[in-house]
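I would love for you to help me understand the pair of lines that follows before we discuss the fold together.
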Amino acid sequence: MSALLMLLVGISILFVFGLPLAQRAYPGRAAAAAVPEALVVAPLLGYGVLTFLTRVTASLGLATQLVAWPLLVAGLLALVPHLRRRRGGPFREAVRATAPVWVAFAAVTVTAGLSFILVGPRFYRGYAYWDTYFYASQAEALRVSAPGQVFAEFGNHPFAEAATAVDFGPERLARALMQSFLASVLRTDGGSTVGFIGVVSVGWVFLAFLLLTKDWSVGPKMRIGACASAALLPAVVVGQVQGFIPMAMVTGLVIAFIRVLDDTLRAPSAARALALAFLISGAAFTLMEALYVMAPLTLVALVTSQVLDGRVSGLVHAVGAWLAAVVLSVPLGNRLLSEILSSTESMTRTGLNEAYPFAYSPRVLTWTFWANSLEGRTDLVAAAATAVAVGIYILGLHGLLRLAMDPPSTLGIVLAAYTLMPLAFVVTGEDLRYSFYKMFALTVPLVWVGAWLTASRLRQALRGAQPGNRVKHQLRRLIGLAAVAVMVVAGFAGAACSVVRVYSVAGSHPEVETANTRIGIWRYVDVPEKRASFDAYEALAGRPVVAAFPDQTTLPDFWWSVYYLRNSPLWVLGRTTDDLFAGPGDTARDISTAPLDAEVVYPVDYDNLGAGADGSFGLVVEGTNLDVVTPFRTNESEGPVTSIRINTFSRTGGTLALTVRSQAPEAVRARGVAGLSALRPGDTVVRIPVPRGGHVVDIDLEGAPEGTFVSFPDAEFIPST
C-alpha cells in the first residue's frame, strides 16, 4: 500500500462527506474570495459527518468494514447532484483560482508526511509507544468488530486488551472510526492508518488557519506562508514527535470552530449552525478535553457579541448548534457525561509533570517549536534560538491582542481568550506543568499566525512611511522585509528540524537520555530485524502461536508483536499483568491448553536465555520478590528474588538443563524440582523435565536473604528422542 495513495484517498473521502454541508454553510462564489471558504472547511466538516455516521452504524453493532463502501457510495451519490445543481462552476473556478492554496496544502502534507511516505503505511508508527499502539489496535478492532463485541471477536487475544478502551467510553473514538473507515475502503489494516491520521491532522491545521485568516489584512502569499508554517512547526512536534495525534487534530478543529462560530454570530444560518455542531461533536469524540476549550470560548463569544452588536439571531443559532451537537453525540455517547468528568482528571495528571519539567520556562517554546533539536545545548545557537522563540511569541501575543481591541471584535477577543487559556493552570498555584504544556501546545500555532500578522503590519507601516531620506526609506523597507524573513526562516527551519527528527531516529531505544521522558521517537517497527519478524508473524495467520515474551508490561515489542499476530490464536508464555496496553490480564489463555502444533515466537532482541528458538520450544524465566515479578529479558541478573518461575512450551517434550548462578553468600534452600534441595553460591545446574505442551515450574528459595540475585548464564533444551 502506497502512503501517497492512502493520503489521496483519505483526503478525498473527507471532501466527499464534507463538501455538501460546507457549500451550504458558505454558499458564496469561493473563487471570488481570497480564501475558498467552502473548500478549506470541507475536510474538517467531512471528518465530523463521517465519524458521526460510523458511530451510528457502530451503535447498531456493525463493524466498519461492513459499512465503509456502502457509506462511501452513498456519499458520492449525495455529492453528484449537489455539484450538478451548481453545474460544477463555482467548484471548478474555486479550485482553478486558488491553485496556490492547494499547492501549499500538498507541500504541507508531503513535508509533514515525509517519514510516513518513505517508511510506508504498514510499518510507520512515529512515536511507537503506547499512545500509538492504542490508536492502531482500536482502529483495527473497530474495523473488524463493533463496540461491545471486541472480546467476542478476539476471545482472549492480548491485542483486544487495548482495543477494548472502546467499551470504556467515547473519548478519542472519532479518530479510530476515521482510521477504520479508511482501512476498510483500502482493504488494509487499521494500524496502517496511524501515519495517515498524523499527517492529515497537520494538513487540516493549515486549512483551518486559512479559514480563520480569510479577512485579515494580510496579502495572499503571506497568508499562505503564515498558515503553512503554523501548521508544520508545532503540529509535527505535537502530533508525530510526541504521539499526541488527537491534540494535533483538535488544534485544527478548534481553530475552524472559532471562525465558524464567529461567522454564525455575524451571519447566522441553519447550515452554519449545523456545521458548528459537527465540529463540536467531531472534536469532543477526538479528545474529550476539547469541550473544556470550546464551551468557555462559546460563552466569551456570546457575551462579547451581545455587548458589541446585540444580534439575537446569531445567539439563537449558536445555542442551537450546541443543542444539535448534543443530539449528534447520542450514538455511542451513553457514557458521555462520565467521560467528560473523567477527562477533568486526565487534564490535571500531576504524575506526568516530569514529562515536561521545563513547562514553566522559556524552553517550553523551543521544545514546542523545534522539538529536541537543541536538547542539551547551552551554546550561542541555543541561546539565539530561545531568544527568537520568545521574541516570536511576544510578537504573536501583540498581534492577537491588537486584533482583539483595534477595533474590538468578537473574533479577536475569542482568539485572545483561547491564547491565554493556559494561564488557568498557572494561576491555580498547583504544579500542573503537564496540563499547562498540553494546553500551551494547542495555542502555539495561533500565536505563530499572530506573529505573522504583526510582521505584516510592521512591513506595511514601514513601506507606507514617507520616503524622506532615501537611505532611511530603504532601511525601513529592509527592516520590514527582515521581520517577515525571520518568520519564514524560523518557521520552516523549525519544521524541517521536526521532520528530520521524525525520520532520522530509529532503533530500539532513544539514543539521548534527558529529563524529558518523551524525547525519543521509538520507531520499534521501522527496524529491519523487526520488520522481518512482523512479516513472519503475519504469515502465521490462522495458526496457533505461543508468544515467548519476557515482559508484557514495558516491552513495546510485545504490544506490536501481538498486533501483528492478531489473526492467530495466541497464548502468552509467562505471567501477564492486567494492563490496558500490556496483556490480557486474568483473561489470558492457560498455557497448558495450547495445542502441540503451536508455533513459538520470540522478540528479536531477546536472547531466549540461551534456549533454542526454532519454533518448537519456548522458555521464559521470571523471578519474584515481595510479590513483584521480574522477568529475565537476558541471562543477566535482574534483581533480588525469593522464588523463580520457569515457563516452558514444547512440541516434543524433553529436559531443560538450566544453569542458575546465585550471588547469595551461602547456600539457599530450594524446593519445587525433584533432586534440587539447595542453590549453592555460584553455579547450579538444574535439570527440569519438560512435558509436551505448556508447563510451569516454580522454585521456592526458602529463607533467601534479602538481596539474593540470580542469573542464568546457560540453558539447553534436550528434546525427547
The longest helix spans residues 470-504. Confidence is low (pLDDT under 50) at residues 503-522, 578-587. Residues 529 and 604 are 7 Å apart (CA to CA).
